[in-house]
Amino acid sequence: MTSEPVVLIVDDDPGIRESLCNELRAAGYDAITAADGRAGLAAFRVHLPDLMLTDLAMPGADGFALISQIRAFSRTPILVISVRGADADKIRALDLGADDFVTKPFSIPELLARIRAQLRRGSAAASSVLTFDGLTIDLERRRVTQGGREIKLTRTELALLELLATHAGKPVFIEQIIARVWSSAPGTTHDTVRVHMSALRRKIEPDPARPRYIVTEPWIGYRFIAEPS
Amino acid sequence: MTSEPVVLIVDDDPGIRESLCNELRAAGYDAITAADGRAGLAAFRVHLPDLMLTDLAMPGADGFALISQIRAFSRTPILVISVRGADADKIRALDLGADDFVTKPFSIPELLARIRAQLRRGSAAASSVLTFDGLTIDLERRRVTQGGREIKLTRTELALLELLATHAGKPVFIEQIIARVWSSAPGTTHDTVRVHMSALRRKIEPDPARPRYIVTEPWIGYRFIAEPS
DNA sequence: CCGGATCTTTAGAAAGTCTTTAGGACGAAT
DNA sequence: ATTCGTCCTAAAGACTTTCTAAAGATCCGG
Could you tell me the pTM of the whole model? Predict the structure, then answer.
């Protein structure tokens, strides 16, 4: 997604159209509008939006028809906004392929949050892989590569690396490390952490003596240096 | 997906837990429950549900913490159910990674429709024949071939292989293996799993001492190494 | 610059996991 | 009733990971 996400608004009430349009633009989206189902479908084909907001009650082709027509060829997230709060409507819309349903009146911040939630999933990126300069950490697969080579880490080493990398840029106290990695195992000392940190650096640092990823913060703990890239 | 979708319910109210559990089972899901955030995270790691329902207000680790901890490694759909309808709560939960938010009281049919909407996305077309480098697994016919030769597997061995192969690339926790293959049969131990894994490897691995398909992840479990081809 | 503490690294002991084999229990089919 | 195949328990040995200890390097305040 190189520019702003495009959101298509379909509603027959010009006032609502304009107000939503303004709010979305203020929130950084590229908003376009259509006044009914027929125009909505046409606009959808032309603009291929990243997300569509639609009302249900509209003259001509209504929201239900619009949803099912779009779902015939696209999986773009669809969020329904409607005064009709009846269960049957919600269920029908959701089962036709809508992804979320908000009843009027609604709060704009909530609507924006729901839009963010939908867009987050659409962008198939965010695959729980942390990428730093030459170092990738796949949290789900529990795999780490450095400069393309796969690196075999023990359970403890991976836990350390994950903890630091998910707090990249911020120093992590050694007590916090003990609490999170050795959760409540008694007798774990600072030395233990250091030994494992040494082993971890030997594996992931090209030059362990001059660390590139994990920096020591004396009297504090450690810090993962780079921002994700 | 060889069986019903697994839904994890996290709520501190036993009445709600049980009622949701019954509704979901009646609707054809495999429901499991946890009473607070900590238990929820543990259950999540073991069962790897297809969707999670969670409350926000809970003793100990609350819903917000649970969501962010799970989002650190997984993108499984999360649906929040809460009495706290405040905008701030909704926005925070959604921005932490939740996919939908329902306020109590809610209607069961609507909840089920929202669950269907969330699950619809995750499940892309799943072929019933998995093909890996030299190894084919026909889930429907329950047949396995390696290098063209048909391999006779016992029920347990096939269940193990299917579980690993449908999660190819990701490590599968040994607790999860026990939960899914020996579903809640008490007294099943890690050693039991290992014995069967040994037998399975002897049959499908050209050189069992140097496994090509099933790799051991010490302290974690096992991983089916290759991506489908 | 010095003293006291922290930090790095190595090496080996301790603890735990993993593989494999063997044998008995159980159920289904003959 | 016997046979066959499957599943589970137990146990030995190999293997890996984790922890403890200690020596030298490094850092900081005074």
Answer: 0.73
Sort B14 into a burial class: Cβ within 10 Å, 0-12 / 13-18 / 19+: exposed
Within 7 A of a protein CB, which nucleotides of strand C?
6-11, 17-22
- Measured CA to CA, the distance from residue A164 to residue B65 in angstroms comes to 18
**CB contact B214 to A (< 8 Å):** no
* DSSP β-bridge partners for residue A143: A138
* A107, A117, A128 ranked by CB distance to B99: nearest: A117
Q: Report whether the peptide linkage leading into residue B186 is cis, meaning its omega lies within 30 degrees of zero.
A: no
Quote the distance between the C-alpha of residue A209 and its chain's center: 36
Cβ distance A139 to B72 less than 8 Å, yes or no, reads yes
Q: Does A36 touch chain B (CB under 8 A)?
A: no
Query: CA–C1' distance A204–C10 (Å)?
Result: 19
How many degrees, rounded to 5, is the angle at CA A10 between CA A9 and CA A12?
130
Please report which helix (H) or strand (E) contains residue A102, including its range. Answer: strand A100-103
Nearest to A176, CA basis, from A165, A164, A191: A164
Instruction: Determine the Cα–Cα distance for residues B183 and B180; give it in Å rounded to an integer.
Output: 5
Q: What residues does B137 pair with on adjacent strands?
A: B130, B144
Tell me the Ramachandran region of residue A102: left when phi exceeds 0, alpha when psi lies from -120 to 50, beta otherwise.
Answer: beta
Q: Which two tokens stand for residue A43?
A: 């606009």
Does A2 or B82 have the greater pLDDT score? Answer: B82
Cis peptide before A14 (omega within 30 of 0): no
List, for residues B129-175, the tens digit of each pLDDT value.
889 988 999 887 888 998 888 899 999 999 999 999 988 888 999 98
- Hey, what are A14's tokens? 């010009």
Dist CA A137 CA A203 (whole Å): 13
CB-based contacts of A1: which residues, under 8 Å, 6+ apart? A50, A123
Q: Where are the alpha helices (DSSP H) in A123-216?
A: 155-165, 174-181, 190-204
CA closest to B167 among chain A residues: A141
CB B208 within 7 Å, strand C: yes
Do the Cβ atoms of A161 and A204 come closer than 8 Å?
yes
Q: How many CA atoms lie within 13 A of B23 on its CB side?
A: 17
